[in-house]
Amino acid sequence: MYTYFISTSKSIIIGILIVLFNTTSCDCSPNNPNKGDEHGLSGSLVIEVQDAYLIGDQKTIIAVVSLDDNTKPALLEGFILQVYYTSGTGEFEFTTYKNNVASAETSTSINEKLTSLVRFTELASNNSPTNITFSIVPNADVIQANIQVKLLDKLGALIKECPVTWEEDKLLVYGLNKFVGNNQSRFMLADTFAAIDPTKITLEIKSNNAATFRLVKVDGSKSSDHALLSELLSTEDEQNRVTDPMYLELDNANANGQQSAVITFSVKQGTTLLAKRSVVWEQNGISIDISSDQDILVDQDVLNLKFTNQDEVVDTEKIQVKLTNDMGVKFRLGATLSGEAISTNLQTIIDQPQLTVSEEVNVGLQQIDNPNEVYDASLILELLDEKGDIICKHKLHWINREKLNVDEVEQWLNKLDRSKIQFNQQKGSIENNLEAEEYNTSLSMLRSIIDIRKQVQEIKGKLQKKIEQGKLSKLFTNRAIVVVNQLIADIDAFVLESIKKYEKHIGKLAEEVQRILQRAKTVELEQSLHKNLSEIYEDIIDMESLSYYVLALAKAINIDMDKAIGKNVKDTLQKNVEKSIRGMVELGKYFKNEAVSRIEPNDAFNNGAERARHLADKLTSIAVDLQENSSYAYECVAQAYQYTAEAMLITAKKETHFNYILQDAEYARNAANNAADAAWHVSTSLKDNNTANQAVKAALQAAIKAWQLALMTELISENNIPSSINGESTSSILKELKDKLKHYQPNVFY
C-alpha cells in the first residue's frame, strides 16, 4: 500500500518535500558590475530566463534580453549568448539570422553574437526587452539536465548567467543503496505532482554480468527481469504520491561465481523512461541499512533512525558517519553530537564498538537551532567504509512547520493543492459540456480555469520571493516550482485543446451560415427571408462572441498572437467571421442582380431591391453588435447599402408610376445615407480611397440617378413631390445628394 509520511492535511508539503534528490538552483546571478564600460558602448544589457525549471515536454527556454538602462541603447554586435549543458547531454535547436534570412540550427551548444539571434542590430527602448527562444533536445537516456545560459560582452567577460534545470517527467526513485550477499536493497518511488498509478508503471533490472537478481513481489513469487509496480505493492491505492518500500535481492542466492555486480534499475511507463538508477551488489562486505518511519523531520520533533547491520560483524570505529544540510540548520545526532555538519565514526554515535549480525540500533535525530530562520533544509546522512566508499546514503528533509504556517507558505501550498483539485474538477465538467456542444457554458468554466491559473501564478511569484530571500532549500525550491510549472502547463495544454474544439465549432457555424445564404436566394415568402437573415445574425454574433472570448483565453495562457499558434487561431476565427459577413454582401449583390433580371417592376422590387434593403439593415445590426470585427463589418454594410441603392435605381427605371419611382428614389437616398453612416465608422477622411468610401460614392451616384429620373418624370407628368417626403422638392434633394458626393470626390462636377 501507499503511505503518507505526515498527516494527510499536509499532503501538498509531502508531495513536494518527500522526494529527496539533487536538483540545481535557478538563481540568475550577475557577475560583472561594470559591464557597460568594458565593452566600450554607452548601453549595456541584462538577461533573465522566463522559466528556470522545466519538466517533461517543457523544453523551450526563453531568454529575455533587455537594456540595463532604458535611456542608453546598446549595439548587439558587442554581446554574445552562450548556452551549454553542465550535466546531461543533448542538443539545442535555435534560429539564426543572416541578411535577415532565418536558418534553423541544431548544435550541442550555442555560442553566437546577439546579432545572429535577432533581426536587428541595436536594442533601444522601443524594442527592449526582446526574447531569444531555443529548445533543448536531451538525449534519449537523459532524465535530468542542467543548462547554463550566459550573456558575455565582446571580450568574453561574463555579464550574467542563468542556470536552467530540466527533468524527464515527475516519477523518481530514492533509496536503492549498495547491498551485500543475500541482503536486500530497499527503495521507494515518488511523484511530486500526481498520484502514481501502479498498473501503468513497469520496473526493469539488468545485471552487468552473470549474477542474476529479482524484484520481490508482494505475494512472494519470483519476478523475472521486470515487474509491474502493482505486483510489488500490497494494494493498488493511487491516492498517495510515495510508495511503501520495495526490495531488490539476489536471485535464489545464485551469484554464478560473481563477487560483485552493477544492476541497472529502470522505471518505465510504456516505452517512456521515467527514471534510471544503478546500484552495486557485492558478495562480501559491509552492509548497513538506515531506515526511519518517515523521512521528514518537523520542527524540533525527534526522528528515530534505525541502523541495521545486514551482514558480518562490523567494527563501528571504522565506519564513518557524515550528516550535512544545505541551509545552515543545526541538528543533534545521537545523544551528544550536534552542529550544522557532523563528521565522526559510528562508535561515537551509538556508543558501542561493534554491530553484530542483524543487530539493530536506534539513533535519534533532532533540529536544535535555526539561526537563519529558514523554512526547511535538505539533509544527507552517509555511512562510509575505511576506503571512503559509500555504504549507505539516506536523504531526509526538515521543515519548520511553525514558520511555514506563520508566514503563510503552508497556506500557499495548500491553496496550490486545492487549485489542482479544482482544475481537475472543472476540466471534467468542461469536457462533458463540450461533448454536449454546450459551448457558452464551457466558456464561463474555462474563464474560471484561467482564474485558477492566475492564482497559481501568484503562488509562484510568492515562492520565488522566498527563494530570493534564501529561506527555502534547493529541494523545496525545485520541487515547488516544478509542481507550479506543471500545473500551469497542464492548464495551458487543456485550454489550448479546448480552443481547438472551439475553432472547429466556429468553423461549423461558418459552414451553416453559407448554407443559409444559399437557401435565402430561393425563398419565396418574405417572412422566410427574415427568418433566414435572423438565423445568420445569430450565427455570426455567436461566432464572433465565441471568437472574442477564445482569443482572450489564448492570450491568458500567454500564446503570442504574432507567432505560429496564436496567429493561426486568430486568423482561423477571424476568417470564419469575415467570410460569413462577406457572404451577406454577396447575397446583397445577388438580390441586386435579381432586380436586373426581373421584368416586372413589382418583381424587381420584391425579389431584388427590397430584399437587398432588408439584408443591409440586418448587416447593420450585426456590425453594431460585434466586438472585434466591427470595422470590417461596417465596410461590408456600406457595400450592402451600395447594392441596395443600385437595386432601387434599377427598379425605378422599370416603374411606370411616378409615386413608385419616387418611393424607389427615396429608398436609394436612404441607402446612400446609411452607406455614408457605415463608412464613418471606418474612414478617417471622406477623401480616402478605401472600400467603404467607394461604396458610398457608388450609392450616392445611384441615388442621384434615381432622383434625376424622378425629376424628369415629375416634369413630364407635372406632378409635385408628395408632402410625405418632408416637404422637400426633388431638385433640393438632388442638390443635397450632389453636395455630399462632392465631399467624396471634390473635383467632379454635376
The domain count comes to: 4
Mean pLDDT: 85
* Backbone CA Rg: 38 Å
Q: Which structural class do you get from the secondary structure elements?
A: alpha+beta
* Count of DSSP-assigned helices: 15
Provide the low-confidence segments as ranges. Answer: 1-41
Keywords: Coiled coil
What does this structure look like?
The chain has 750 residues and is an alpha+beta fold. It has four domains: 11-167, Sandwich (Immunoglobulin-like); 171-401, Sandwich (Immunoglobulin-like); 404-498, Orthogonal Bundle (Topoisomerase I, Chain A, domain 4), CATH 1.10.132; 559-744. The chain is built from 15 helices and 34 strands. The strands form eight sheets. Strands 1, 3, 6, 9, 12 and 13 form a six-stranded mixed β-sheet that branches. It has a five-stranded antiparallel β-sheet with strand order 2-4-11-7-8, with no helix packed on it. A hairpin with a 2-residue loop joins strand 7 (90-98) and strand 8 (101-107). Helix 6 (409-435) runs antiparallel to helix 7. The longest helix has 47 residues, at 474-520. It is elongated and about 135 Å long. The termini are far apart. Keywords: Coiled coil. Residues 499-526 form a coiled coil.
Features:
coiled coil; Immunoglobulin-like; alpha+beta; 750 residues; 4 domains; six-stranded mixed sheet
Short overview:
With 750 residues, the protein is α+β, with helices and mostly antiparallel strands. It is built from 15 helices and 34 strands. Strand 7 (90-98) and strand 8 form a beta hairpin.
